[in-house]
Amino acid sequence: MRAAQIRLVEVGQRHVDFELRQLPVDVTRIATAASLEGRWRGHSLRRGFATAARRAGAHLERIGRHGGWADGSTALLGYIEEADR
After folding, report:
1. How far is it, in rounded angstroms, from Cα 82 to Cα 54?
2. pTM exceeding 0.85
3. Are 17 and 8 in contact (CB under 8 A)?
4. Largest Cα–Cα separation, the chain
5. Phi, psi (5° rounding) for residue 22?
6. Rounded distance, CA 18 to CA 30, Å?
7. Which of 34, 11, 10, 29 minimizes the C-alpha distance to 19?
């Protein structure tokens, strides 16, 4: 297995392999395999990171820099759940 591949040991009763470049497609596929409700896409991970970091008390500037947003980006706020802004 190459370094850019990850093997998930279990999703339900099945094994799921994916490559990082396929992550947006695989997020949807894995969420479906795990019977997760809702609309799951590659940006679900980015949004989840931003929201979780804010809930943990991280400052917006630090979240933005870690996630690749420009300092003072208003787009970052769109990735954080409204109640956690």
Report:
1. 11
2. no
3. yes
4. 44
5. -95, 10
6. 10
7. 29
